[in-house]
Write a structure and sequence with these properties.
- By secondary structure, the protein is α/β, with parallel strands linked by helices.
- The protein has a single domain, classed as Rossmann fold (3-Layer(aba) Sandwich), CATH 3.40.50.
- The protein has helices spanning 25-32, 49-63, 110-122, 132-142, 167-175; strands at 68-73, 127-131, 150-154.
- Strands 2-1-3 form a 3-stranded parallel sheet, with helices on both faces.
- Helix 3 links the parallel strand 1 and strand 2.
- It starts with 24 loop residues before the first helix and ends with a helix.
- Pfam families: DEAD (PF00270).
- InterPro entries: DEAD/DEAH_box_helicase_dom, Helicase_ATP-bd, P-loop_NTPase.
- This is DEAD/DEAH box helicase family protein.
Length: 176
């Protein structure tokens, strides 16, 4: 079938060019803010927000700012954006590694995911990937005190509501 319409946009390549640490410009701007208490990244789809989080989280782990990183996504399929990623070969100091055991975005075992989350909090592992729902259930089970010294990230933050009926919103309010 022949293309009826073909649109080509002028591109400069600036948004995909990377610096010496393998970061795009938006990621480098986010990384520059890594010492802020709260960071909200708002950028178009496929702009590198997930990788920006990896850079920031790895820096916080390396410098000892936090002991653990929890990445919460709205649904399991989005968790694929946060699987183990090679970053050293592009110039960063560490690779992003998610243990298979602590990737809770795999199908099945919903009841045991909270138990695995609790195990993670007591382990030497540093990165856990879960859904918003698993984070909420685990938070209810183990309490806010266990989240001290953790970087808790909420992907797709627009799912959080300021409404007091929003469990995820209440969780974020409590952590803050």
């Amino acid at each position: 079938m022949e293309n009826i319409i073909n649109v080509t946009y002028e591109t400069t390549g600036q948004t995909t060019a990377v610096n010496e640490m393998g970061m795009r410009p938006m990621q480098a701007r986010a990384y520059a803010a890594r010492n802020s208490q709260y960071i909200l990244l708002k950028a178009p789809p496929a702009s590198g927000k997930s990788r920006a989080l990896m850079f920031i989280a790895l820096d916080k782990l390396k410098t000892g700012s936090v002991k653990k990183v929890i990445v919460a996504v709205p649904e399991r399929s989005i968790g694929k954006s946060f699987l183990s990623t090679e970053l050293v070969k592009y110039g960063f100091h560490s690779d992003w590694k998610v243990s298979g055991k602590y990737n809770l975005c795999v199908p099945g075992g919903e009841n045991s995911k909270v138990e695995t989350f609790k195990e993670f909090m007591d382990s030497d592992e540093t990165v856990l990937l879960c859904t918003h729902a698993t984070l909420r259930f685990a938070f209810d089970k183990i309490g806010v005190a266990r989240f001290g010294n953790c970087l808790v990230t909420v992907d797709e933050f627009h799912h959080v509501s300021a409404d007091y009926e929003s469990k995820l919103g209440e969780l974020v309010r409590t952590l803050m």
